[in-house]
């Protein structure tokens, strides 16, 4: 199993190119199943999760080729509407396929995702919404078996769930009549899925708002080329890394508009950030100010940068709080950050961090994608050597993270043990 070794203390400088967004490409790959067709998707990051989704599409019967960040999917001969436990258990986003399969085959068998590394993560909103569209849903030996011809209806989510919004969008594209989703998620990755579906011939309006209206259509195109948006979470991770380790860097191929909340918080922390087109220049603060953060659905501060922000706050002057309002229990990184000498107390979903002058390198363990990123960030700022194990978590969501940090001047390398 690979480990990452970091000798902290180097400031970062130079340029880093941000890849395509994991959470945008995964549902778009799933959406290629809705209708038989040939798709060319560009700016696809080479991640464990994109490879897992490729495997799932092949099980369903698609032909998938991938090279140089370009993916070609031919979904013409898909004939097996089944997403098995072996895949769903390794990547919850496999559940995105449910709505797409139901739309194409009027039948789907998708393993019910279990909990994840930090908590239960239910799928009740997905199930209730699909039932409202007329699907018959049963649970059999851990598999959700959904069937039926769908008819549009009014759906209102209790919370703007990203996953449930994606599944309903995909299920409703070819349903009879009109579907309205109220309190829908409006993350850039949802907008991107809507762009993909509309380019395919779907009729979805309300993009960027909490109310989406889908008019069911009969015909969709059987050929489409589409480019994946930049990964705002990878970009945010690099911005926070520079703020923490010190130095100055240029991020290339980003969409600064997707990072408004993060940029505002980094400026409060003392960083200077200048956006120019699809670039962002960051200069680290002389001294990091303590800044409170509460995560929220987009356009709020993303839960996917909560762990990285915590790493930054461990090294600031003063004390700050981080409240996760999206996942109340996403805090497995705290125990590991404390191993670097960080001072963090957790009460329910509120972490209070008292900044320390120096973090000291230590052996630590990855627990999920973003927690792993926070450990790399802390180790870049820590004195001495840190060893991060179970890095397969980080490979799910970051392509060549150690090479990108090496190019910025960090002393970081991967070892296979
Ligand atoms: N929720 C329910 N019931 C449901 C669905 C969600 O109670 O049926 C709750 C969740 O437990 C959570 C909240 O609603 O408290 C939001 O969950 P959401 O459905 O929005 O999350 P998701 O679709 O499972 C996606 C991303 C996550 C990201 C969240 C929030 C993908 C593949 N995953 O998950 O990304 O944290 O939205 O923005 O898009 C990551 O990339 O590291 C990651 C975990």
Rounded to an integer in angstroms, the radius of gyration calculated over CA atoms is 21 Å
Percentage beta strand? 25-35%
Mind describing the biggest β-sheet?
4 strands, mixed
Strand order of the largest sheet: 22-23-1-24
In this entry the ligands are: uridine-diphosphate-2(N-acetylglucosaminyl) butyric acid
Q: Which percent range fits the helix content?
A: 25-40%
Annotation field: number of helices: 14
Cα shape: globular
- Mean pLDDT across all amino acids: 96
> Low-confidence stretches at least 5 residues in length (pLDDT < 50)?
none
N/C terminus separation: 6 Å
Counted beta strands? 24
Essential attributes:
417 residues, alpha/beta, four-stranded mixed sheet, 14 helices, globular, binds uridine-diphosphate-2(N-acetylglucosaminyl) butyric acid
Written overview of the protein:
With 417 residues, the protein is an alpha/beta fold. Helix content is 31%, strand content 27%. It has 14 helices and 24 strands. It has helices at 22-31, 48-60, 85-88, 97-105, 124-132, 162-172, 188-200, 232-245, 260-268, 306-313, 333-339, 369-381, 392-395, 401-407, and strands spanning 2-7, 12-17, 38-42, 63-67, 70-74, 82-83, 107-111, 136-140, 143-147, 154-156, 178-182, 203-205, 211-215, 223-227, 247-252, 272-276, 279-283, 293-294, 319-323, 343-347, 350-354, 363-365, 385-389, 411-416. The model has no long low-confidence stretch (mean pLDDT 96). It binds uridine-diphosphate-2(N-acetylglucosaminyl) butyric acid. Uridine-diphosphate-2(N-acetylglucosaminyl) butyric acid (EPU) binds next to helix 1, helix 5, helix 6 and helix 12.
């Amino acid at each position: 199993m690979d480990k990452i070794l970091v000798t902290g203390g180097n400031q970062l400088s130079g340029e880093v190119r941000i890849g395509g967004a994991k959470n945008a490409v995964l549902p778009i790959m799933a959406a290629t199943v809705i209708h038989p067709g040939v798709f060319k998707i560009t700016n696809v990051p080479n991640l464990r999760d994109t490879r897992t989704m490729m495997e799932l599409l092949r099980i369903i019967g698609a032909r998938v080729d991938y090279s140089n960040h370009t993916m070609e999917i031919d979904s013409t001969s898909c004939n097996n509407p089944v997403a098995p436990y072996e895949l769903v258990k390794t990547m919850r986003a496999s559940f995105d396929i449910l709505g797409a399969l139901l739309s194409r085959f009027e039948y789907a068998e998708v393993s019910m995702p279990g909990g994840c590394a930090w908590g239960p993560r239910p799928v009740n909103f997905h199930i209730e919404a699909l039932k409202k569209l007329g699907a018959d849903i049963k649970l059999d030996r851990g598999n959700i078996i959904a069937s039926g011809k769908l008819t549009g209806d009014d759906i209102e989510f209790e919370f703007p769930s990203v996953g449930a919004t994606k599944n309903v969008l995909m299920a409703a594209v070819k349903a009879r009549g009109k579907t309205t989703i109220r309190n829908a998620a409006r993350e850039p990755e949802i907008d991107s899925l809507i762009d993909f579906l509309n380019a395919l011939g779907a009729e979805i309006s309300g993009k960027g708002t909490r109310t989406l209206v889908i008019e069911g259509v009969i015909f969709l195109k059987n050929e489409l080329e589409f480019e994946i948006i930049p990964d705002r979470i990878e970009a945010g991770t690099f911005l926070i890394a520079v703020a923490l380790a010190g130095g100055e860097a240029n991020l290339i191929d980003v969409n600064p508009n997707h990072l408004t909340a993060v940029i505002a918080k980094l400026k409060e922390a003392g960083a200077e950030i200048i956006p120019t087109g699809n670039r962002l220049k960051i200069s680290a603060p002389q001294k990091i100010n303590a800044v409170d953060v509460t995560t929220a659905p987009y356009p709020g501060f993303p839960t996917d940068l909560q762990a990285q922000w915590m790493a930054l706050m461990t090294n600031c002057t003063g004390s700050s709080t981080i409240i996760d309002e999206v996942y109340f229990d996403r805090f497995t990184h705290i125990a590991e950050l404390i191993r670097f000498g960080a001072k963090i107390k957790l009460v329910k979903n509120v972490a209070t961090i008292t900044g320390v002058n120096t973090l000291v390198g230590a052996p630590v363990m990855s627990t999920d994608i973003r927690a792993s990123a926070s450990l790399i960030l802390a180790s870049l700022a820590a004195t001495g050597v840190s060893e991060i194990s179970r890095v397969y978590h980080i490979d799910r969501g970051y392509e060549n993270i150690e090479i990108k940090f090496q190019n910025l001047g960090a002393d970081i390398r991967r070892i296979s043990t």
